[in-house]
Amino acid sequence: MVADVETSKLSGVTSFLPHEISLENPCPPSKLLHPSDRIGIRFEEITSTPELTQAGANHTWLIFTDGSKIDDRVGAAFVVKDSANTQPSVIKKFKLHDDCSVFQAEMLAVQMACKHIIDHHLTDVLILSDSKSGLTELRNGSSYNRFAVNIHKLLHQARSSGYTIEFAWIKAHAGFDGNEEADLAAKAAARMRRIPDFQRVPISLVKHQNRQKCKESAKTLYMNPNTCVHTRSLLPTYNTLQEFIKIVRPDFATTQVLTNHGYHKEYLHRFHIVADDRCPCDDQTPQTWKHLLTQCPRFASARYNHEMISRLLNIDPYNLSEIIRKDDTAKSFKAYITNIVDHLKEFNQT
Predict the structure, then answer these.
(1) C-alpha–C-alpha distance, residues 287 and 296, integer Å
(2) Which superfamily is assigned to 15-208 in CATH?
């Protein structure tokens, strides 16, 4: 393998790792350079041909790096050019495992470019990458990203040997020959049929798969006829619930409405906290959330305001699926239920 990345066998994540491929976990602090040697890179930005021409005039060698994911396959490459353009380009390609990310490919290309510089004793080099996220990671000399740690070590070695390596971000697909060559080489590397040069699953993939599994589990639980009965009566589908939560941010008041747990006497009586479930408005009607929202005279003024806003917008004031269609009704509903919760304990004298 071309990259020095330790194998990780973390319990709890192995089920996410495809084909027993290991996890690219963060580098331990002990593997970083000494703090006095941790120098993050600086990089300029190149967006036009004149800027690239000027950059080439100030350096002996230009190395264009790129990573690509095409047809669910991942590759990386770098292209070495002399600034005078008197020698043929040197092109190096690297294949990554299909589950690797483009970010990993971009970082691998930079790492292997730095290694090539040292191995071939190139001096006065400008590395040009179209990955601003990768260059930004390298700007942090204390990054725990394993590629960044490896690159910082290579740069430290190069500086100790008297080599000059500078960096620039170059705009992708802007017609720069070197960048286009690197892009084509990275795509060709992705299609190569050989054992990958690098095969470590990024943490981002594990997190994504974990989120998907959690989402599917939550959806299954929500749609189970024996669970979430009250919430589902208000928001019939899991997707509607997610939309509501996104628009009407959950807080103390909205949680009481959605779960039917809270200060209302129907709930308190169920758990023997109060003697009865009757609303003080008439001492006869059970104090449910439906009663508080639609009937209780104690909150008639706040209810009137919410209903007027809803009707002006042709929205059912108590249909949560409709309420979230308009920002005004969503805000009005939240203000209404917050008003109820804020005054409910005092109203009930509980």
Answers:
(1) 9
(2) Ribonuclease H-like superfamily/Ribonuclease H (3.30.420.10)
